[in-house]
Write a structure and sequence with these properties.
395 residues; Rossmann fold; Serine Threonine Protein Phosphatase 5, Tetratricopeptide repeat; 4 strands; 8% strand; globular
């Protein structure tokens, strides 16, 4: 439930802003798959009242309460937000936005977008923790645990465990859309991140299950993203972009869609455009659990442009944000080797092999199925040669 944001500055102009943030956030959070959000008309009956989150949770049968405040000081506006567990009263998460006052509506859109993305990840983590304590988890519990693993990083271990949760969920509920989408995402991730010897089989499976999900729920934004990714990774990047744009039409806050459009353009030989799309994704969701992957995507796009120094900086940023991305270590090792930093390159490869001992040059070359664009293929071939120099096994 989103409680009406408090205007603690007393300025009537900020009152409209606070109400606008509350209404927009209520609408946008209701788009999160599987979420139930109390309607704004009910929420606004609590405006200006002292609220006991635990009592509210019992009365309205809600698990989480989001509350916030708006305060203007000079030419700056501060928005404080916190997420409360309505069962225990504990504070789970808090965020502060402190920005110069310019266009209030633009600021409102940015704040709502960031909050919706951040809360999506926080709610998944909270529900996964709750599910772990359940003696008899249902399909929804299993789905949250699967998504929580995906958010932790891209490694064979996490993907295998996530797959198990989604498959168990589908055994209990064969038409569970969230489980289908999760399973499709595991498939495309294993293929694109070179975690399998047969990426084409993974992409085909992802396309099939995404289409099944969309036959049941054609307006499911995440299913559009999964289908678009399967298309993008099988030499149909332009069709993939069309699916990502449809996802954005369904969910304007989809930072993932922006990042995927950037990656698709890299596959089409338009890597110079990738950074701008990732920048938009980061603007909408700067602390997104998938942001490390987006940073790495800019890095590999720079490789295709022969901008190795820039590529190095982006790859390092991605790994600093989350070191559980095995392929990123190998890409970093290749760039380091090309720049003559052989010892550091081999250390990067060693870290990658610790996460994915089965990674080889042969397996990585199979990932060239993602695109037939000459610029993409030339960049990938340079990467493979330098991976070999950095110590990646031939396979």
């Amino acid at each position: 439930m989103v409680l009406p944001f408090a205007n603690i500055g007393g300025d009537p102009e900020q009152e409209y802003f606070a109400d606008g943030v509350t209404e927009s956030l209520t609408t946008d959070l209701s788009r999160i798959s599987g979420a139930f959000v109390i309607a704004r008309n009910t929420a606004f009956t609590f405006k200006g009242k002292a609220i006991d989150a635990k009592k509210l949770g019992r009365e309205l049968n809600v698990r989480y309460v989001l509350e916030g405040s708006v305060q203007r000081s000079g030419n700056r506006l501060r928005v404080n937000v916190q997420l409360i567990d309505a069962e225990t009263g504990n504070h789970l998460w808090a965020e502060r936005f402190d920005k110069p006052v310019a266009d209030l509506f633009d600021m409102q859109d940015e704040i709502v977008s960031r909050l919706a993305n951040a809360l999506n990840a926080e709610l998944i983590a909270a529900e996964a923790r709750r599910a772990e304590l359940s003696a008899n988890p249902d399909a929804t519990d299993l789905v949250f645990q699967g998504w929580s693993l995906i958010n932790r990083g891209i490694s064979p271990e996490y993907m295998t465990r996530a797959r198990g949760f989604f498959e168990r969920a589908l055994t209990l509920a064969p038409e569970n859309i969230e489980a289908m989408v999760g399973l499709a995402l595991v498939d495309v991730t294993e293929g694109a991140a070179v975690l399998t010897d047969d990426p084409l089989a993974r992409f085909a499976a992802a396309e099939m299950i995404s289409n099944k999900a969309l036959s049941i729920a054609p307006n499911h934004a995440a299913a559009r993203l999964a289908l678009g990714t399967a298309l993008m990774c099988t030499k149909r990047a332009a069709q993939g972009i069309a699916e990502f744009e449809q996802a954005l039409a369904l969910d304007r806050n989809s930072a993932v869609a922006h990042s995927l459009i950037g990656y698709a353009k890299y596959l089409l030989g338009r890597g110079a455009e990738t950074e701008a799309h990732v920048a938009e994704a980061l603007r909408l969701s700067p602390r997104d659990p998938h942001a490390p992957r987006w940073l790495v995507w800019v890095g590999v796009s720079k490789v295709a442009l022969n901008a190795d120094t820039e590529a190095l900086a982006w790859l390092r940023r991605g790994l600093e944000a989350n070191r559980n991305y095995s392929t990123a270590h190998f890409n970093l090792g290749a760039v380091l080797a090309r720049l003559g930093e052989i010892d550091e390159a081999r250390a990067a490869v060693k870290a990658g092999l610790a996460l994915d001992p089965k990674f080889t040059i042969r397996r990585s070359r199979a990932a060239n199925a993602l695109s037939s664009d000459p610029a993409y293929l030339a960049g990938r071939e340079r990467q493979l040669e330098c991976m070999r120099l950095a110590g990646v096994p031939e396979g």
